Amino acid sequence: MAYVLQVDFKMDGPFGDEMAEAFSGLAKSINEEEGFLWKIWTESPETNEAGGIYLSKETASKYLDKHSKRLAQFGIADINAKIFAINFKLTGITKGPV
Fold it and tell me: Which of 19, 57, 67, 69 could be stapled to 35 by a disulfide with Cβ–Cβ 3.0 to 4.6 Å?
């Protein structure tokens, strides 16, 4: 079984290249998480939001708890998060990268 974790939150920046530079260490540490497969980073400077979509072999609830604490260190507290199981048959039909 694989799971998708969707996370988003309000953030005043940085965005774009500045965000990539500021969070490259965090990105590298995410690769070390148990069961982690990939993450898509999301951002919207227009609405001051950021987040990501994670694919994991695990339920992702353990990672969500750890990541929420890490975001709190950046002053981010109001985090929206959802965990979904993946339907592999339908995802395969629509060429999902799992």
Answer: 57
Please give the average per-residue pLDDT across 84-97, as a whole number: 89
- Adjacent-strand bridge partners of 44: 49
Which domains are seen in the chain, by residue range? 3-92 (3.30.70.100)
What mean pLDDT do residues 22-28 have?
90
Contact 83, 59 (CB under 8 A): yes
Cα distance between residue 68 and residue 65, in whole Å: 5
- Model pTM score: 0.83
3-class DSSP assignment, residue 58: coil
Contact present, 68 and 81 (Cβ < 8 Å): yes
